[in-house]
Design a protein that fits this description.
The protein is of the alpha+beta class and about 120 residues long. It has four helices and four strands; from the N terminus they run E-H-E-H-H-H-E-E. About 35% of the residues lie in helices and about 35% in strands. It is elongated.
């Protein structure tokens, strides 16, 4: 079993409960970890025998473009989409970070981590 990770994917998106967040937007960073049996790809050196990173990135990008109030909702949508598009993924973990959240104080980010 292998873990394929795509970390530090940056997106400008419009997720948040406040009207300003839905209007102005902010930066988000997404990390995704996919547990996959890569035995065949290790032997064949063929992209079709593993998970295509580009397709995964495009899937995450598509989900990030759909506005949501909660990181929980965004994270779950990403996990559901990954499992639907890539049935060979046996386990997945996603971390969604909202950079510079408007919480009235200085902080780098808030984040949510979900697994399925």
């Amino acid at each position: 079993m292998s873990v394929i990770s795509i970390e530090g994917m940056e997106f400008y998106a419009y997720h948040g409960c406040f009207a300003e967040e839905q209007l102005i937007g902010t930066w988000f960073v997404v990390d995704l970890f996919l547990e996959v049996d890569t035995t065949m790809a290790e032997q064949t050196d063929n992209l079709h025998d593993t998970v295509n990173y580009l397709e995964v990135y495009q899937l995450v990008k598509k989900e990030m473009e759909i506005n949501a109030k909660l990181l929980e909702h965004v994270g779950r949508r990403i996990l559901v989409a990954v499992h639907q598009a890539f049935p060979q993924v046996q386990h997945a973990r996603v971390k969604v970070r909202k950079m510079n959240p408007p919480l009235g104080g200085k902080m780098d980010f808030v984040s949510l981590t979900l697994e399925s």
